[in-house]
Amino acid sequence: MNDWKMRLASGWNALRFAMRSRLRIRLGRVRLKPAPKAHLYPDAATKRQERELLDAYDFGRWRELLGLTDYQLNLYQLDFLHRLQPELAKRLPRALRIVDVGSRTFYYAPALFRFFRRHYEVESLTGIELDAYRRYRNGFTAYDYAQAYLRELNEPGIVRYEAVDFMKAEAPYNVCTLFLPFVTPDPLLHWGLPIGTFQPARLIEHAYRRLEQPGVLIVTNKGPEEQQSLHRLLREAGIPFADRGPFTSAFYAYDVPRYVTLVVK
């Protein structure tokens, strides 16, 4: 995107972002819409892996509650974290405070909570979203959808969703997940945020500063180019990291693989 198009898009985004952040109009409760899943994974090996994850993480109830795409994406997250667990187990304390940055609708909250509850004592799991009142075509907002998942989780003292700027959050944590943070400006503008909110270096530095020791940042990027942008920011900040390469899962196929980076403190 050239400079004048970027300025134009940013100005329009700034106006819309300010309006939705202030008005916060809600149409009511979102209700999760279950869908049949009997033939979702015809492959025997994938079906067996699905059953193993459902049993290991007590996820059978969510199989009944979620729609098809939500269910597939939650299985993807469970698979991702499950395969990461041997490394996490070496790095993390028993009791965890977890923060997820840029949670959007927090559709993967069930997978995050069930995974960490299985292996650790979860003191808190907080989803943070700057643009929580972004409105979807059906009129509901990201905040509305997040509340639907949180109601079904029914862990009000532990699992939260906060419509705040992460840069202003000061509470420490042991785990920080950043799934697809904006590390280049074009995706941020396409999402609908003004360029003034594009502060990837500050974001990474703040996330690392608030991370307790021992603690882990888990970051995924869309493709190798975005991951390289992240790694450049980490090097410039003097933050050590480990490149874990692309992650793929039989449960959901993204058009561009997600690339994984771990930061250990």
UniProtKB/TrEMBL annotation:
This is Class I SAM-dependent methyltransferase.
